[in-house]
């Protein structure tokens, strides 16, 4: 269907006469009339009747108006989007990540964006789903596992495991900021299920250290784990930042280990994306935001510790 004929039809609807519509479209009246007649022929419908030198919509014409406006709006949106794509711009971006990453990183990052930045719409997914989502219309994913070389990717940074306890727990009273796996397994633990990448990292470290869990309870809601830990029900081990009063310590394999246990987040997107440069720039900003947020969190925790 020729969109120009739809445009001519709506121009007459809005102007009320062929004369006024022709003037609005800057075309000759006979040419406009032919466009509408051709449209009526294509549809097999009469769209107007003549009444007192004015055109009146027939019932079929009335029904077509809404559809015609929607069709033109969609066509303009496609044209606008194509123009943006050719210029490498992203107006709306679909970003997939785990619920914890969305809550702890993506949502806070969105609050810092400028009006000219893309509208970021998040999609929750399990880690195993993220790879496939890049093949099904998602612009970018944030993954707690390293992505395939089939995709463009960027390391965002490490997120440490934190062992949360109540304010009257011995670790809190001693102001311990680091605990080892050997200290951890002596406590009743509140952990994610083994579907969690953070739990898998902890399990792997436990296995390599030749240690076994004692008493554990599993829950896949990090805030619930923190709440239970604050209530004195055990030591909650998650990667999420503090959400309740209490105390937390980072986790090392042993006293000689130089690094903390945790996960590493990666941003990934398709090499063939029409705006790969924009996505790369956004990933770099997300990396810088993550680094600054972690530094600010550590500063606040240190200040709280000195009070």
Protein traits:
elongated; 3 domains; D-Maltodextrin-Binding Protein, domain 2; Arc Repressor Mutant, subunit A; LysR_HTH_N; 307 residues; 5-stranded mixed beta sheet; transcription
Overview in brief:
The protein has 307 residues and is α/β, with parallel strands linked by helices. Helix content is 46%, strand content 21%. The strands form three sheets. The chain has a six-stranded mixed sheet with strand order 8-12-7-11-9-10. It has a five-stranded mixed sheet with strand order 4-3-5-13-6, with helices on both faces. Strands 1-2 form a two-stranded antiparallel sheet.
Which series of helices and strands comes N to C?
HHHEEHEHEHEEEHEHEHEHEEEH
Mean pLDDT: 89
Q: Structural class of the secondary structure composition? A: alpha/beta
What is the terminal separation in angstroms?
Answer: 73 Å
Helix content: 40-55%
What do we call the CATH topology of the largest domain? D-Maltodextrin-Binding Protein, domain 2
Please work out how many helical segments DSSP would assign: 11
Q: Which CATH architecture of the largest domain? A: 3-Layer(aba) Sandwich
Strand percentage lies at 15-25%
Whole-angstrom Rg? 30 Å
Tell me, what is the CATH class of the largest domain? Alpha Beta
